[in-house]
Amino acid sequence: MRDRPGLIEAATDGTLFLDEIGEMSLPVQGRLLRAIELGEIRRLGENRPRKVNTRFVGATHRDLSAMVRQGAYRPWTSSFPPAWHRGGDPTSEGAPLGRRRS
Q1: 16 within some domain
Q2: Which residues, 6+ apart, have CB-to-CB distance to 25 below 8 Å?
């Protein structure tokens, strides 16, 4: 058996982009939530969790609030500030779209 990290573990101390998070099944959402909230994952076949420090960025075209109300998406217990409110993130050199003049 090979000792190979998965995507979340390989992205430790970095950022993992998750496209179309609205397409995830409820069990996968639960495992992802554990990685986000507790900072730990469990490899397939292992009994002990491993610590990870990964930043997650997600995107979807779905209405996640509606999906939560329908029971198709897990409600998040964590509060994530918008990217521009967190320290240490890259900043944009241009003005936000809402403040640009034509």
Answers
A1: yes
A2: none
Residues facing 40 on adjacent strands? 51
Write out pLDDT tens, residues 12-65: 999 999 999 999 999 999 889 889 889 999 998 899 999 999 988 888 888 888
Q: Are strands 50-51 and 15-19 parallel, antiparallel or unpaired?
A: unpaired
pTM (2 d.p.): 0.67
**CA 71-77-79 angle, 5° bins:** 125
Structure tokens at 32: 């992802």
Strand partners, 51: 40
Q: What are the residues whose beta carbons fall under 8 Å from the beta carbon of 57, sequence distance 6 or more? A: 15, 16, 17, 18
Residue with tokens 């969790």: 49
Count of structural domains, the chain? 1
CATH at 23: 3.40.50.300
Encoding tokens for residue 67?
């999906």
Neighbours of 6 (CB within 10 A): 13
